[in-house]
């Protein structure tokens, strides 16, 4: 079993001293606020008891299986995006809870919510309401769709945003099957969470310079569409278009891990020199040198399908390790293709201490991924286990002087 780590003590990240009231759940907002928590922010996860038909709190608490004998409410995805947070359980239908929440808001620098905005208005938690309590608050709303468009206020989940943003049209452009397909990862949620985390720090910088808080809207559809079209706007960047939607190199059906004699490699020669060296090592230098389709970057791009097909033929002639030994000294980009099962033993991930094992008092051993961004002066750290539902309610109410029933 891997070495068990101890939780860090005080926050050492660049956001230490910043307090965030977090009304997000599921993946989008929760992923973004965990990044901020890893970077030192005191993130207070506000959860509610539910309608009485479920267990309450963030729905991701109840998705997936916990170890035998462990308490429920610590689902595996909840565990990967809610560390370093404190859980506050309040029933906002109670007057005492609303008074406690107002005191808590006054103590916070940032208010983040993924509840639909009309729901926030009904709760008395619209921007104007919160800013009346804390005028310099950075108020961030993780919306599905921008508030000035016709989809404003509609429910949004990863599947819906992948469908609406064009992501579901990427695989059809790759393999010729016209059926739209959703990528098997929560890419829309996680990309939106990254935008959210960045927007919080940008708004905090503005406040530090001017003293002003502000309302910030982070709409999933717009974020994910802009993310996708960085490369896939491609020929439609210009008017009239100069080519197709979709970056030709990326929607190439031969762009994939290449099979070797005993496995797969990720391989991407890029410069003229690297392509020449690769085909020389592969024993195909004479063929390539006389083929005008591959003379330079521009012509290679026009014939990328044929080029990758040749790479696939070459890759199959050697083992994975033989290719690594041949190509790494030439600085030709190449890696062994990992299966998910391979990741804990990947030599690079082992060396950078990527997977870390902690001992939870109720769950036993569990695995976390180390915060990936490194700050030389203000390192992120892992100092709190993902919280139980309402675990820190009494502690937090005491911090803001609350004694009424919440």
Largest sheet: spatial strand order: 4-3-2-5-6-7
Biggest β-sheet, characterized? 6 strands, parallel
Average pLDDT value?
Answer: 94
Name of the top-level CATH class of the largest domain: Alpha Beta
Tally of separate domains: 2
Number of extended strands? 12
Low-confidence stretches: none
Task: Outline the fold blueprint.
Blueprint: E1 4-5, E2 19-23, H1 28-38, E3 42-47, H2 76-81, E4 85-89, H3 95-106, E5 110-113, H4 117-122, H5 127-133, E6 138-143, H6 158-165, H7 170-175, H8 187-210, E7 214-219, H9 220-232, E8 258-259, E9 264-267, H10 272-281, H11 285-289, H12 297-302, H13 304-315, H14 320-327, E10 334-336, H15 347-351, E11 355-360, E12 364-369, H16 393-399
Parallel strand pairs: 1-11, 2-3, 2-5, 3-4, 5-6, 6-7
Antiparallel strand pairs: 8-9, 9-10, 11-12
Helix pairs in contact: 1-8, 6-9, 8-9
In a nutshell, what does this entry contain?
This protein has helices at 28-38, 76-81, 95-106, 117-122, 127-133, 158-165, 170-175, 187-210, 220-232, 272-281, 285-289, 297-302, 304-315, 320-327, 347-351, 393-399, and strands at 4-5, 19-23, 42-47, 85-89, 110-113, 138-143, 214-219, 258-259, 264-267, 334-336, 355-360, 364-369. By secondary structure, the protein is α/β, with parallel strands linked by helices. The strands form 3 sheets. A 6-stranded parallel β-sheet has the order 4-3-2-5-6-7, sandwiched between helices. A 3-stranded mixed β-sheet has the order 1-11-12, with no helix packed on it. A 3-stranded antiparallel β-sheet has the order 8-9-10, covered by helices on one side.
């Amino acid at each position: 079993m891997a070495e068990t780590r101890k939780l860090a003590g005080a926050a050492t990240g660049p956001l230490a001293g910043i307090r965030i009231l977090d009304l997000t759940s599921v993946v989008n907002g929760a992923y973004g606020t965990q990044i901020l928590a890893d970077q030192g922010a005191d993130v207070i996860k506000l959860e509610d008891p539910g309608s009485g038909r479920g267990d309450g709190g963030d729905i991701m608490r109840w998705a997936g299986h916990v170890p035998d004998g462990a308490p429920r409410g610590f689902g595996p995805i909840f565990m990967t995006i809610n560390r370093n947070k404190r859980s506050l359980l309040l029933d906002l239908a109670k007057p005492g809870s609303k008074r406690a929440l107002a005191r808590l808001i006054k103590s916070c620098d940032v208010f983040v919510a993924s509840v639909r905005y009309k729901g926030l208005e009904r709760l008395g938690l619209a921007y104007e309401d919160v800013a009346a309590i804390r005028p310099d608050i950075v108020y961030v709303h993780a919306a599905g769709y921008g508030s000035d468009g016709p989809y404003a206020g509609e429910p949004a989940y990863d599947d819906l945003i992948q469908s609406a943003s064009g992501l579901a049209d990427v695989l059809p452009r790759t393999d010729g099957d016209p059926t739209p397909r959703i990528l098997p990862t929560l890419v829309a949620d996680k990309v939106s969470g990254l935008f959210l985390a960045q927007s919080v720090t940008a708004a905090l910088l503005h406040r530090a310079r001017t003293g002003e808080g502000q309302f910030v809207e982070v709409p999933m559809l717009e974020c994910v569409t802009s993310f996708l079209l960085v490369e896939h706007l491609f020929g439609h960047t210009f008017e009239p278009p100069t080519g197709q939607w979709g970056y030709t190199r990326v929607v190439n059906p031969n762009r994939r891990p290449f099979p070797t004699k005993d496995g797969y490699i990720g391989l991407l020669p890029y410069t003229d020199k690297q392509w020449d060296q690769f085909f020389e090592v592969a024993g195909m230098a004479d063929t390539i040198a006389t083929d005008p389709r591959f003379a330079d970057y521009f012509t290679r791009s026009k014939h990328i399908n044929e080029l990758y097909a040749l790479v696939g033929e070459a890759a199959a002639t050697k083992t994975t390790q033989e290719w690594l030994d041949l190509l790494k000294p030439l600085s030709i980009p190449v890696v062994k293709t990992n299966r998910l099962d391979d990741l804990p033993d990947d030599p690079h991930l082992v060396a950078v201490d990527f997977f870390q094992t902690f001992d939870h008092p109720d769950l036993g051993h569990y695995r976390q991924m180390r915060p990936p961004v490194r700050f030389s002066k203000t390192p992120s750290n892992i100092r709190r286990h993902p919280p139980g539902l309402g675990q820190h309610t009494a502690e937090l109410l005491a911090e803001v002087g609350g004694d009424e029933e919440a």
